[in-house]
Structures are given as C-alpha cells and as structure tokens.
Automatic annotation (TrEMBL):
This is Phosphoribosylformylglycinamidine cyclo-ligase. The keyword DNA-binding does not apply. Its main location: cytoplasm. CDD domains: PurM (cd02196). Coiled coil: none annotated.
Length: 340
C-alpha cells in the first residue's frame, strides 16, 4: 500500500521526516499555556491565566494567505521568509482590533513534499510567531500532486487573539480632529503580486538583477517580508493611546483606512507626508501603471495607520521609529478617506 501511495505521488516518509524536523523550532514559539501542540489530533491552549483581569473577554480571529508572492519565492528558491509574511498578514489584522495575540495555526499544501523546503517555510512562520507573541500550536501539511504541480505550494494561516470588549478598537471611537499616524512598510509586503509578476513579465525585468537604487537583486527586494507591527503598536494599545487602526493591504491606504472611519467623518490624507519607497517607483515606471491604480493595489510605503487623539501624537512619534503624521479626521466630506 505504501508503495502504491508513493507511486500516486504522496510520500508518507517525507511527511514524517518534515514533521520531525520542525517540532523543535515550533516549540520555541510556545508559552506556558500550550498544553498540546503538533502531533496530536488537536492543539490545546489554556485560557485560565490569559483571561485573568480581562473583563468581558472577546476572541478575535483572522485568516489569510500570502497570495502569488509565493511564486517569487519559488522562482528565487528562497523560502525562509515567506512564513513571516503569512504570520504578518494574520497578526497585523487582529492587532488593528486591539487584540493581544494568543496562538497561530498554518496550512501548507504542496505538489511534492520536500522536507528541506518545509523546514525553511516553518522556520519563517516560527520567526513571525515569536515576533508577534503567538504560539504556533498546530497546522496541516498536505501533499496533493493532483492539485499542485512540482515545487508549487500554497500557504494559509489562522491567528487568534484576545481583547476586552470595552477596549476593542472600533470606528466608533474615532472623533473629529483625531490624527492619522502612518507606520512605514517594508516594501510591497504581500499584496498586489499578481500585478507585480505581470509587470516583471511584460517589462522583462530580471529577478536576479540588482537595479539602480537597490542593494540586492529585484527578486530578493520583492521577498522582503511583511512588517510585523505587534512590538511597536501593542504597547500603545495597552496604554489606551490608539483609538482605531488599519492594516494597509489590498485596496491600498484609502480602501483599508475607510474601514476605521465612522459615518459623518472623513480622514483627510496628505500624500506628500511620506516618501514612496523606490520599489514602487520602479514597478510603476516599468509597468506604465497610473497613479490611481498604484494607490488601489499597493501600500505605497504605509503598512499600518493609527488614529490617535491630538495630545497622543508626540508619544506615538517618539515610540515608533519613522512613524509620521499623514492626516487628520474632519467632518464628513464626500468619501470616508480623501487623498490630497
């Protein structure tokens, strides 16, 4: 039977080897609340200590993937940071609702299971979890040659956090005269890669070439992992400084910030307040992409936006490196977000 299954494209021994090799790195993410992690039928996470002192506790969950950035990782044969992207896409989302991260699960589907590649991927996931105070407590690894071809694979993640009901970050907390503070991105992050890849192909850009203005090949520049904002932002949330937040992903600054603006108010954003990173200029020129589409697809240098009271602005700027005031909340205009 094993021989027949392997002939069908599924290597059970490779799967067992991969699990064995990642166990120790996964354990480095665990806190004392993890009762059962990988290897069992289900993971277990104790809540007694977590819930202590949290009135009206609310669980916050988020799930996401990395999209076609995976294709760049496969082409560059570099898989050790794509897991950071996966964690960031989920962890940054739940952070915008004020949640303290608790635990993370992942799904990895592959065409051909290669333990060395799996080890790189999970190393990145574990790194992202450690940076985000998430315990990596379980996941699924599936070899499906009928779905994925050769070296192709897909990643999905699931994060759970906790917040007191009364301390949730919501649009209802936002007031006129509040200030929008932008936190810098690391580059493209994990959105817009279908367009990125289209530009690379049609403009005949070389992923292995280092272009003017960069100190590494284009492929590695594009693989710069999505920035994790937990360490910079959660202390501000705990201090009651942040009223609302937005993770700037697909849809750009306007599309995502609009989720945090209540009816009757508008976030007026000064587009000249920050410098757009060089990677976006390269992509725009090479692909002949107009400004409106660039703003709709990419973060253009702002990876997260915080809405704070005017008196809290200086505290945020002092605590978060390279944070910059990018706008102000005013009485409702024509749209929830106005770019000037």
């Amino acid at each position: 039977m094993k021989h027949g299954y392997e002939e069908a494209g599924v290597n059970i021994a490779a799967g067992e080897q991969a699990v064995s090799e990642i166990k120790e790195m996964v354990k480095t993410t665990h806190d004392h609340n993890v009762l059962a992690g990988i290897g069992g039928f289900g993971a277990e996470y104790a809540l007694t200590d977590v819930l202590a002192g949290v009135p009206e506790p609310v669980l916050v969950s988020g799930t996401d993937g990395v999209g076609t950035k995976l294709r760049i990782a496969i082409e560059m044969q570099k898989h050790d940071t794509i897991g950071i992207d996966l964690v960031a896409m989920c962890a940054n989302d739940i952070l915008t609702q004020g949640a303290r991260p608790l635990f993370f699960l992942d799904y990895l589907g592959v065409g051909q299971l290669k333990p060395a590649t799996v080890k790189q991927i999970v190393a990145g996931i574990a790194d992202g979890c450690r940076q985000s105070h998430l315990s990596l407590i379980g996941g699924e690894m599936a070899e499906m040659p009928g779905i994925y071809q050769g070296a192709d694979y897909d990643l999905s993640g699931f994060a759970v956090g906790l917040v007191s009901r009364r301390r949730r970050l919501t649009a209802e907390r936002v007031q006129a005269d509040d200030v929008v503070v932008g936190l810098p991105s690391n580059g493209v992050h994990s959105n817009g890669f279908s367009l990125v890849r289209h530009i690379v192909e049609t403009a005949q850009l070389d992923l292995h070439q280092t272009y003017p203005g960069f100190d590494q090949p284009l492929g590695l520049e594009l693989l710069t992992p999505t920035k994790l904002y937990y360490q910079a932002v959660y202390p501000l949330i705990e201090a009651g400084i942040v009223q609302a937040a937005a993770h700037i992903t697909g849809g750009g600054l306007a599309g995502n910030l609009a989720r945090s603006i209540p009816a009757g108010l508008t976030a007026v954003i000064d587009r000249q307040a920050w410098q757009v990173p060089t990677i976006f200029s390269l992509l725009q020129r090479a692909g002949k992409i107009d400004d409106d589409e660039m703003r709709q697809v990419f973060n253009l240098g702002i990876g997260m936006a915080l809405i704070v009271r005017p008196e809290a602005v200086q505290t945020v700027l002092n605590r978060v490196p390279n944070a910059v005031v990018i706008g102000k909340i005013k009485k409702r205009g024509e749209t929830a977000v106005e770019l000037r």
